[in-house]
């Protein structure tokens, strides 16, 4: 069973930065495509960023492009989301997700494509 544990959320002023981490249990982290999603109160969960197994391919939602960066360290079984220039509309619970995929360069951007989810970490951006 794969377990995902997010950390790094908190309260930050607009324009500030946070780095989220997601630690993944298991010995086959490199076989998983990873993603970050977020869900604001009263809204559906939405895609934020995704990264391929090797880390060579990434995809970011238009709303965060140029401000957020997804990365991974396969030696540490961890995926990161660096968030800069934060805005109040970035306030949400952020979730990391994992899916076992055969293709080295697969990018998954749909919620239903992921098999495993973390418990979420709250990010609050004050104006």
Major sheet attributes = 7 strands, mixed
Q: Shape from CA axes?
A: globular
The tally of helices reads: 0
H-E string: EEEEEEEEEEE
Give a written overview of the molecule.
It is a single chain. The protein has 127 residues and is an all-beta fold. 0% of the residues lie in helices and 48% in strands. The strands form two sheets. Strands 2, 4, 5, 6, 9, 10 and 11 form a seven-stranded mixed sheet that branches. The protein is globular. The protein starts with a strand and ends with a strand.
Provide a short characterization of the protein structure.
This protein is mostly beta strands and 127 residues long.
Question: What is the topological layout?
Answer:
Blueprint: E1 4-7, E2 10-13, E3 18-24, E4 32-39, E5 46-51, E6 58-60, E7 68-73, E8 78-83, E9 92-100, E10 116-117, E11 121-126
Parallel strand pairs: 2-11
Antiparallel strand pairs: 1-3, 3-8, 4-5, 4-9, 5-6, 7-8, 9-10, 9-11
